[in-house]
Amino acid sequence: MNQPGIEVESGPSASRNPVPLLDATNCAQGHISVCICTYKRPELLKRLLKALLAQNTAGLFTYSIVVADNDCSQSAKAVAVEVSASTLISIRYCVEPQQNIALTRNKAIEHSNGDFLAFIDDDEFPDSSWLLNLFRACEEHQVDGVLGPVKRHFDEEPPQWVIR
User: pLDDT tens digits, residue range 56-67?
Assistant: First the structure.
């Protein structure tokens, strides 16, 4: 059995097709790559990663995580390494040094290995059935993609103008 860990890519000579540390793609129903684009928000990223590790798959699919850091100083790397040490879920870390969300999304896609992609922002966090609901919607409606609402959550009461 493979050991848990993180796969790190950085620099222009890094592999374009990394091999996952855990091969979780043998599930008959499919594999989802959860792609996170992040920029200098390690605390929020850590909260998101912990929520992603608690996803209910109901045995229907497997998933892995790709953290695409849009910070050339690699501010997300320590969090990705720390969280990956406590899980068997594969976490891939890569860097897009040029600040540009489109390039960062493309970098995440380059390092994904799923039959499906699920994008979530570093300042969001899913409930435990987020991936399961997306997967079931694709299966039930025989579609290649779905999306859903993002419900606002505030740790503190925001100003009234934010809520409107």
Answer: 999 999 999 999
Buried b (16+ CB within 10 A) or exposed e, 28-56: eebbbbbbbbbbebbebbbbbbebbbebe
Q: Say how far apart CA 130 and CA 8 lie, in whole Å.
A: 26
Please report the pLDDT score of residue 148 as a whole number.
80
> Any bridge partners for residue 69, and if so which?
38, 95
pTM of whole model > 0.90? no
Q: Is residue 51 part of a domain?
A: yes
Residue 74 Rama label (left phi>0; alpha psi -120 to 50; beta): left
Q: What was the pLDDT predicted at 25?
A: 39
What is the phi/psi pair of residue 61, to 5°?
Answer: -160, 165
Q: Is residue 100 part of a domain?
A: yes
Pick from 112, 48, 111: nearest CA to 83: 48
Residue 6 has pLDDT above 70, yes or no: no
Cα gap 103→32, rounded to integer Å: 21
Find the CATH number of the domain harbouring 93: 3.90.550.10
Its domain, for residue 128, covers: 21-163
